[in-house]
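Box S2. Input/output pair 1.
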Amino acid sequence: MDHERARSLFIEYRDEELAQELRFELEEHLRTCPDCRRDWEAYNETVTGVSALGRVKPPRDFVQKIERKIGRRSAGRFFGARNEFNLSFALVSFVLIVFFLLAYLFIASGREVRVIPRAGGGDTEAGPVTGGDTASGGPRREPSRLEEGGTEPR
C-alpha cells in the first residue's frame, strides 16, 4: 500500500468502516512506515481532542445571520430578497395588454361599412370596405352576391 492510499483511509479506519482485508493491509503499512504512523497518530489525536469538546448549540438566528452575510457579500445573488410577486412584471404585462387591446380596437374601427344603393332600386345593401382606392377615387368594397351574379338571400 502506498502512502497516499494509506492516508486516504484514515477516516474510515477510525470510524471502523473499513473492510477487514483493507483494515489488515492498512495496519501492516502503519507498522512498517514511520511517516504514515506519525500522520495517523496526529490525525487520531486531533479528532479525539475535537470530539472531547462536545457540541455547542448555535444561537437561534444563526442561519439567518449567515444568509444575510452571504447575501451582502454576493451582492444579492444568493439569499437575496425574494419577492414572490414582481410588481414591475405585473405592471409591464398590464400595460402591454392594454396597448394591444387599444391597437386591436383602433384597427377594427378602421373597417368601414358603407351603404350602397342596389342596381334595381329600392332597398340598399351594406358591404364591408376592404380598403384601398379604386380608379374612381373611393374605397374598394367586397362585392355582394347580387353583383357576382348570385341570387338575393331570402
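Box S3. Input/output pair 2.
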Amino acid sequence: MNFLLYFSINMSRIRLRGLSVKRMNKNSGFTFIEILIVLASVIFLVAITGYAYDGIKARSRNDMRTTAIRQLQVFVETFYAQNTYYPTRAELNNPSWQKANLKNFKESYLADPLWTPKNADCTVNGNPILLSKPQLGCFGYNPTNNGISCANNAQTCDRYTLSATLEDGAGVYTLRQLD
C-alpha cells in the first residue's frame, strides 16, 4: 500500500504520510486556494447559465417568428378569400394599402423580433417591410403567378411563400398558400 496515501484525522491535526499540518483556527478565514476554487466554480456556473440563457432567448425569438409568419398567412389568406388573388409584395408593404384592405393589420406584424429601424435592408420610412427572400431580422414574402414573381399591381398572384430565417442554424421557416 505504498502508493496509497494514508489519512488519519483527529481533532487537532491532519496527518499525510508522516507530515503534519495544524488545522486552521476558526477565526483564520479561508485559504487563497479555497477562494480560487469557489471563484472558478461560480464563473463556470455563470458561463453555463449564460450560454443556456442565450439559447433559450434564440428559441423564443424563433417561436415569435413562426407565430408572426402564421399570423401574416391568416391576413394574406383572408385577403385571397375576399378577392381571389394574393397581394403583391409592394401592396403588402404599403401602409395605406394595408389599412384599406387588411382589417386590424398592424405594420408591426411585418417586423422580425430582431428587426430595428436601423436595418436598412427591410426598413422604409422607419417601418418594417417584407423582402423577396428572408434574412435574419427581415421576413420574406414572394407572391407568384404561374411560377413568375408578381412584381407589380397589374398581375394577379395565385401563389406565395412567406418565410423567416431562424437563429442558431435552425434554417428557414416557410409557409405557402393554402390549397
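Caption for Box S3: Residues 1-16 have pLDDT under 50 and may be disordered. The two ends are 79 Å apart (CA to CA).
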